[in-house]
Amino acid sequence: MMTENERNLPDKNISLMRVDLHTHTNASDGNLLPGELIFQAEQAGVEMLAITDHDSVAAYSQLETKKNISVQLIKGIEISSRWKKMGVHIVGLNVDINNAGLKAAIKKQQKIRTTRAKLIADKLQSQGFENVLEGTYKIAGDAAIGRLHFAHYLIAIGAVKNYNAAFKKYLGDNKLGEAKNEWETMSQAIQWIDGSGGKAVLAHPAKYKLTHAKMEQLIADFAAAGGHAIEVVSGLQTQEISQRLAKLAEQYHLLASSGSDFHRPGQSWAALGAQSELPKTCRPVWEEWIQ
């Protein structure tokens, strides 16, 4: 949660700063190399960027030798977790990617992903699809395997036309390819991030399709567990959603984050640095990192 010192930080002029603190590369389920993502972010005028791959920080090792990066890079990760019986994602910002605790957490998360992938593959094979696991791993390569890779496989074999169709027919909640949520708790994810020196951010709360009361309970539990900020803005969204989340952030003394949730070019609703404007009443989580 926000400390008293952070509440008293002097105001900074950040109105013209373009940030994107939620993006993905091909180290998880994005389709750009880390260097390509950096280049496109620079071309889009992004000044501060976080790569937040799912349960992975592998993208950063590929950037160690890259020089002359004009964008300010905030090291991050997106950790899969569970709240009650549903999955929620917690973004960690400004983490120490070499922290022993975070490395152990990532290893544990990857093991869960492997078990989950086998279960999804078995369910899809029961419907007559062949070589599902092998085909999906071939697509994923060294990336942290996830449902988007299964969607890509289903598109590749002609089973569906696009990603939306893959999730609607096979991979979405309560569909054939859904796997039981075996992730660690939201509280544990927050502890991992906090232990690595980072700030825990509740990712895209408006996308969990919760009633207002349940969303407020999620945010209240997140704050009580030591969470630091929520994504008040995730990609392009209505002003109504942004204002509602801004009020909840203020109510629970949480800072605000903003990210596109970029995965691939061509998705106008999740374009790099092009997300909706953060309400002026918010206190941005990135304020203390401005160089």
Structural features, described:
It is a single chain. The protein is of the alpha/beta class. It is 37% helix and 15% strand. A hairpin with a 2-residue loop joins strand 3 (72-83) and strand 4 (86-93). The model is unreliable at 3-12 (pLDDT under 50).
Q: What order do the helices and strands come in, and which of them pair?
A:
Layout: H1 4-7, E1 19-23, H2 34-43, E2 48-51, H3 58-61, E3 72-83, E4 86-93, H4 100-125, H5 132-140, H6 147-156, H7 163-171, H8 186-195, E5 199-202, H9 212-224, E6 229-234, H10 239-251, E7 255-259
Parallel strand pairs: 1-2, 2-3, 5-6, 6-7
Antiparallel strand pairs: 3-4, 4-5
Task: Give a brief rundown of this model.
The protein contains ten helices and seven strands.
Mean pLDDT: 91
Count of distinct strands:
7
| Main beta-sheet annotation | 7 strands, mixed
User: Helix and strand succession?
Assistant: HEHEHEEHHHHHEHEHE
Uncertain spans, ≥5 residues at pLDDT below 50? 3-12
Largest sheet, order of strands side by side?
A: 1-2-3-4-5-6-7
- What characteristic shape results from the CA principal axes? globular
How many alpha or pi helices? Answer: 10
Gyration radius (Cα, Å) is 19 Å
Indicate the proportion of strand residues. 15-25%
What percent of residues adopt helix (DSSP H or I)?
25-40%
* Class of secondary structure makeup: alpha/beta
Distance between the termini: 23 Å
Task: Supply database-style keywords.
disordered N terminus; 7 strands; alpha/beta; globular; seven-stranded mixed beta sheet; 291 residues; 10 helices
